[in-house]
Structure formats: C-alpha cells, structure tokens
C-alpha cells in the first residue's frame, strides 16, 4: 500500500496504532457482535476512549487536530476488521461536524472537549421514515415556547442512535427551505426516547435506529446557529463529512475483502495446488487489487483536498461512488472464488458483502452521486458546500 503522496510519517504512525488496536481489541469481539446482532456499547466506548473521535477537532478544544485524511485512516483501519466499528466512528464524526461548523463558542467549549476525551458520542439525526432522503419533506417540528423549544416527531436511520449521548436533530420550525433548524438534544432529556433497535442485514454491533420526541423541551441555547440554518447543517454534514466518512468505511471493507481472498486462495488446494495459482482466480484477485488501488486514490485525494480547504464536493461524490461500487463488485467476485463455503459464516466474506451493502444509501445512493456528477459536468451546480464552509458562508452563529 503506497500512499506517500498524501500521507506523512504521522499518518503512518497513526495507521499502525489503530491497526494494532483493531487486531487486539476489535477482532476478538466480532463473533460476539455477529451473534448478538445489537449495538456493542463496551467496544464503542473503548474506541471513543482512544481519543480518535477528536481527530478533526482543533487542539484548542482538546482534539487531535489532524484533519480528514487522518480521520479516513482511522475509519479505514477499524472497518478493515469490523465494518460496524468503522461505521460507529464515521457516524460520530457527523456529530462533530455540526458543532465545529455551526456551534456557538459556548457549545464548542462545552461539547468538543468531551467528545475529544471520549466522554461523549455525538450523532446527527435528519432522516424520517416518510420523507427518506428528501430533507425538505421532514415533518418533525419544534415550536418556540419562551426560552425553550418543544420538539415532537421522530428520526430514523440515525447512526449511533443507541449509544449516542448528544443528538444533533434537524426539524421544522417554519415553511420551506428556510424553515429547518438544528438543535443539540441530550440523550437523557425528558421527552426523548429510543425505539427498540431493529435487527439488520449487516454492521452488527453498530446502531442506526429511531429517535422519538414527545413534547421534548429544549433550551434555545441548544439551537445550532440561527433559525433557518437546519438545511445547511444537514447538507454540509452529509456532503463534507458523510461522503468522506462512508468512503473510508467502504475502503476498509474493501481491504478486508482482498486480504481474505488472497489468504483463502493461497490455502485452498485444487488439482494438487493452491487455487491462487489458477489463471481465472488470478484474474479475479488482480481485478480486486486494481479496484482497491483506484478506490484508495479517490478516497485519499478527496480527503487531502478537504484538508487543504479546497473546493472538493465533486471529488467527494466520486470517492463515495467509486468506493461503494468497487467494494460491492469485489465482494461479489470474492464470493465467486470462495464458492459454496463463502455462503457460510465459517468464512467472513459473507459478512463483508452484507456490511458493504449498508454503505450504499447514506449520504446519497450511487444513482444520486452520478446525477450530481452529471450536473457538474454540464455546469449546472449551484456552488460547492466545501467552498462555502471554508469561506464561512451560511454558517454564521448569531
């Protein structure tokens, strides 16, 4: 794996640290997570305690201040062993983003050090069952009541739902695009509840469940930005952090697919020799390797541009598209190499395939990314969120 153009010795040291932790602490717990199929609170907290959730948090707030490429490496190395734990860290980073870019000084001083220390797991909650990816179709609502807001409604597919301490919730406070507002809602606040966690196809150990709000009273001081900033909170978190983070999860799963395929093909003998020596198997392994190399370049390039403060919405879209689609293609090809044994839980390849599918929809499906890329090619984009964030547009706190 040669990525020296983008990475430094500091990045390499971080990778070694995370990889060693993942092998030592995460891998032994994977069978338990696969069996129980529910959120793994202990491991989530243990990962948070490593202070990696603060990788993009500035040092002045106790964070690592290492940026998006370092974040990509952390998520990638965890996802290489457990897609669920890679997903746990990527989801927490969405919660970090909203506070960094939209939080008041008081909110930053209150929450960012706690997140950096591993004492707080943040989330972001936008999606609703009826509106899906149509953000403007949401119905959850907050009504002003003196110095408070009263929130009613629900949110679904919330990453870290059942382990989160601080939920960033976008709801309606008015009509139209300017009628959305974001709030910080503590998990122990009266009027907030969690729906029972539902079993899913993959990412066992991770939770992306439903949040319920019934006359949940929230201080106005918990509002992120001004009334009407909710759409910017939702879109910027998805465009800048969500796509990059999910790309990293796919990348880690993809690396696991290659590692497992090579290991299996090197051990499995047929016709008196390892099947890795068969030309058709070599073709498939070569194709997986090529996909992975290309996917990693798109992921690191997009993260690098984001760290440099350069416009990179298009690169982030392409990185998610390439990484998601290529990891799914490689998982399918690896399943063909494994043949019947790949269908059993005896080998982890079926887990990689199930986990890879979970990265398809969040922050825009592959179809959405293609449409956005086409619009960019035709000159129909209306500016880039990455550029707006760098300039501080639409993120001013009053």
UniProtKB/TrEMBL annotation:
Keyword set includes Oxidoreductase: yes
UniProt keyword annotation of Flavoprotein present: yes
SUPFAM superfamilies cross-referenced by the UniProt entry: Acyl-CoA dehydrogenase C-terminal domain-like, Acyl-CoA dehydrogenase NM domain-like
Record-linked InterPro entries: Acyl-CoA_Oxase/DH_mid-dom, Acyl-CoA_Oxase/DH_mid-dom_sf, AcylCo_DH-like_C, AcylCo_DH/oxidase_C, AcylCoA_DH/ox_N, AcylCoA_DH/ox_N_sf, AcylCoA_DH/oxidase_NM_dom_sf
Cofactor(s) required, per the database record: FAD
A GO term for molecular function: flavin adenine dinucleotide binding
UniProt domain Acyl-CoA dehydrogenase/oxidase N-terminal: residue ranges: 8-119
Family under the similarity heading: Belongs to the acyl-CoA dehydrogenase family.
Name recorded for this polypeptide: Acyl-CoA dehydrogenase family protein
Species classification: Bacteria, Bacillati, Actinomycetota, Actinomycetes, Glycomycetales
């Amino acid at each position: 794996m040669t990525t020296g153009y983008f990475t430094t010795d500091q990045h390499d040291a971080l990778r070694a640290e995370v990889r060693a932790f993942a092998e030592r602490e995460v891998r032994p717990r994977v069978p338990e997570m696969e069996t129980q199929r529910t959120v793994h609170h202990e491991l989530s907290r243990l990962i948070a305690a490593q202070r990696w959730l603060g990788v993009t948090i500035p040092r002045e707030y106790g964070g690592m201040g290492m940026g998006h490429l370092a974040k990509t490496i952390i998520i990638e190395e965890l996802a290489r062993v457990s897609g669920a734990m890679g997903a746990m860290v990527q989801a927490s980073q969405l919660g970090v983003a909203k506070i960094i870019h939209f939080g008041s000084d008081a909110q930053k001083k209150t929450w960012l050090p706690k997140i950096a220390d591993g004492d707080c797991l943040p989330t972001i909650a936008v999606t609703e069952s009826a509106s899906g990816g149509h953000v403007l179709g949401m119905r959850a609502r907050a009504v002003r009541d003196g110095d408070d807001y009263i929130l009613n409604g629900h949110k679904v597919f919330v990453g870290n739902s059942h382990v989160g301490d601080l939920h960033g919730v976008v709801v309606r406070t008015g009509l139209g695009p300017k009628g959305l507002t974001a709030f910080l809602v503590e998990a122990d606040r009266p009027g907030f509840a969690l729906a029972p966690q539902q079993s899913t196809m993959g990412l066992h150990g991770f939770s992306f469940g439903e949040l319920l709000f019934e006359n949940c009273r929230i201080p106005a001081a918990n509002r992120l930005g001004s009334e009407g900033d909710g759409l910017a909170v939702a879109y910027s978190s998805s465009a800048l952090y969500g796509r990059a983070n999910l790309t990293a999860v796919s990348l880690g799963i993809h690396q696991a697919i290659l590692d497992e395929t090579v290991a299996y093909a090197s051990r499995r003998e047929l016709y008196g020799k390892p099947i890795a020596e068969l030309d058709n198997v070599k073709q498939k392994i070569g194709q997986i390797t090529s996909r992975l190399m290309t996917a990693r370049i798109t992921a690191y390039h997009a993260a690098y541009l984001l760290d440099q403060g350069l416009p990179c919405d298009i690169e982030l879209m392409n990185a998610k598209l390439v990484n998601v689609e290529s990891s799914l293609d490689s998982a399918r090809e690896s399943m063909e190499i494994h043949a019947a044994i790949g269908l059993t839980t005896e080998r982890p390849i079926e887990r990689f395939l199930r986990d890879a599918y979970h990265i398809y929809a969040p922050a825009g499906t592959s179809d959405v990314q293609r449409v956005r890329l086409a619009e960019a090619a035709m000159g129909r984009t209306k500016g880039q969120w990455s550029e707006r964030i760098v300039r501080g547009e639409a993120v001013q706190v009053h």
